Amino acid sequence: NPTFPSTKPKILVARAIFPEALAKLEESFEVCSNQSDKILTPEELQKALSEVEGALVAGSERIDASALSQATNLKVIANISVGYNNFDVPAMTAAGVMATNTPDVLTDTTADFGFALLMATARRITESEHWVRGGKWDQWSIVNNPLGMDLHHSTVGIIGMGRIGQGIAKRGLGFGMKVIYHNRSHLSDADEQACGATYVSKEELLRTADHVVLVLPYTTQNHHTIGAPEIALMKPTATLINIARGGIVDDGALAQALQEGKIFAAGLDVFEGEPQVHPELLKCRNIVLAPHIASATEKTRRAMVDLAIENLCAALAGKRPPSLINA
Ligand code: DGY
């Protein structure tokens, strides 16, 4: 019997995804898939993109003019991530490539994690565990146990008040916290009321918050938006939580502040140059470290993959993807 070349559109799946999702894609597409999960080099990515009409990628793939330079048939790149600082959106638009992300489906999961990281940091949970495992716990003590900072009836300051920031605020309200926020723009009155949140300047937030939570998108303009001068404004009893992106915080300055007791503690899910972690941060006692897992629940990661696939399929069917960035 003669064999005919596949007429299915070719797509790239740049990172490992759930096997059922991959099988579903294979029904409609000729899939070039990197299930090894080893991040493609820029050269490998450029070559792979030159051969396909669509691609599913994650934050690990930098999509810029160079990555797109040979991608003559490419119509869409769907990020399996809400943050899209790995995309050079103007370059994608110039190349006629649709860019999409995965908003909404991860909001509550990420806000849950942000709150968990805040609690673990303020109440010294991982440090306490090391203490117990290290055999240092010899008796209950009023003063000689790891004493933390309260969340209830404290002030949480949220920088970046998008969907996830608002999710943190609502969780804070449940703990009787006062919520202040700083954002590019004010929320509507209705949204401020729903979050019980008051807008303040960044300086006032840093000066008055007991807990500062960073949930803003990373752009070149807000690189190191929290560095030594900003940390110096914070209370010595304050905590700093970063579930946004590495690069927003100057990790070297933070490590120094933690070592010198300028602030009480920090909880970090994201790092400059991750998966590398600044060596001075690793030396700090008063820190909780996580490997960029704020959206990592089984259900949410499946929902993110499904939404990315929906975006890709819509674009390749000539329709508007539900979460198109470069509209
Ligand atoms: C997101 O969706 O932006 C998460 O941080 C994973 O990259």
Automatic annotation (TrEMBL):
Stored Gene3D superfamilies: NAD(P)-binding Rossmann-like Domain
Positions of the D-isomer specific 2-hydroxyacid dehydrogenase catalytic domain: 11-326
GO molecular function, one term: glyoxylate reductase (NADPH) activity
Domain of life: Bacteria
UniProt keyword list: Oxidoreductase
Domain spans labelled D-isomer specific 2-hydroxyacid dehydrogenase NAD-binding: 115-294
InterPro entries: D-isomer_2-hydroxyacid_DH, D-isomer_2_OHA_DH_cat_dom, D-isomer_DH_CS1, D-isomer_DH_NAD-bd, NAD(P)-bd_dom_sf
Record's keyword annotation contains 4Fe-4S: no
Record protein name field: D-glycerate dehydrogenase
Biological classification of the source: Bacteria, Pseudomonadati, Pseudomonadota, Betaproteobacteria, Burkholderiales
